[in-house]
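Below is one such record:
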Amino acid sequence: MDIRRSMRRFHGLLALLALTSCRAAENKSLTELRSDLRSTLSLASETKLFIRQIEADRVPAQFRAAHASYLREEALRRLKAVRKSEQDAGDPNKFYLCAGQLEALSGELGVIGMRSDHNALAEAERNIDVIRKTLVDAGAEQ
């Protein structure tokens, strides 16, 4: 009888440990997601400020191209990290959303680096506003 009781306790303890570790992994994924959303929002906000500086003619052409390239590489680096985190997520929908916004941001930065005419910059700024709103609606400011 004592062996059976010990075995039941042992199995109960194993089940408890398994549930606890799953919960810890879920919390880690949520923490990573919040961080990814916030950093993507930050990058989009920096891009919007950069566009405004270009429009105000405060940025030399060489710096514009180099900084847009730097920001684009940062977006692509974050995209790679988000896709890696997404594989471990229980509910990957927000990871997909974040990845999609990083892809869109990367595309806008490609345009900004190559073109500086007012219409292209205005269009890029509108698109960045949509990206920012999408991220805020997904909880990036929480």
